[in-house]
Amino acid sequence: MNEIERYRFAERLLGMRDPLGALMMLEPLLDEHGDDHGVQLLAARSYYHSAQLGRAKEALDGLLERDPSDHYARFLLGRTLERASRLDEALPHLRMAAAMHADPDYLDSVGRVERKLAA
Questions:
Q1: Nearest to residue 45, comparing CAs of 69, 4, 70, 10?
Q2: Whole-number Å distance between alpha carbons of 27 and 6
Q3: Where are the alpha helices (DSSP H) in 16-103?
Q4: Quick one: pLDDT band at residue 26, thresholds 50, 70, 90?
Q5: How far is 82 from 113, CA to CA, in rounded Å?
Q6: 60-72: string of b/e by CB count within 10 Å (b at 16+)?
Q7: How sure is the predictor about 23, in pLDDT bands with cuts at 50, 70 and 90?
Q8: Is the dihedral of CA 100, 102, 103, 106 positive or negative?
Q9: Full-model pTM
Q10: 52-103 confidence digits (pLDDT tens)
Q11: What is the b/e burial string over 42-56, where b = at least 16 CB atoms within 10 angstroms of the residue's CB?
């Protein structure tokens, strides 16, 4: 299986709700192309969906350090922090993602975290 097939298969596994399988497919790509934005983002999504929140945060922090304009990585970082009950840290990332890109999911997340913080 070549690298592109491996990457696409990892995407399909994640779509089928198998984030650990996706990570297994990504492992050789992370070793050889760990600085590739697409590989890192797919790994971060897989970490998030497999509840490896520390690893997800680490991957997303690295992505945002290299490209602070990536609204989806910023949104996923906010969701990761929210899921880890770090609401005060999550809210600025969610707000920024919502300001950068008009996505209803982004706005819903901002409202949800604001309500949790107000409670």
A1: 10
A2: 10
A3: 19-33, 37-49, 53-66, 71-83, 87-100
A4: very high
A5: 7
A6: bebbbeeeeebbb
A7: very high
A8: positive
A9: 0.94
A10: 999 999 999 999 999 999 999 999 999 999 999 999 999 999 999 999 999 9
A11: bbbbbbbbbebbebb
Q: What is the token pair recorded at 93?
A: 């990332």
Tokens of 91: 């809210």
Report the half-sphere exposure of 85 (CA within 13 A, side-chain side). Answer: 0
Q: For residues 22 and 56, what is the distance between their CA atoms, to the nearest angstrom?
A: 14
Show the tokens assigned to 29.
Answer: 């790509």
d(CA 3, CA 27): 11
| Selection from 20, 21, 59 nearest residue 41 by Cα | 59
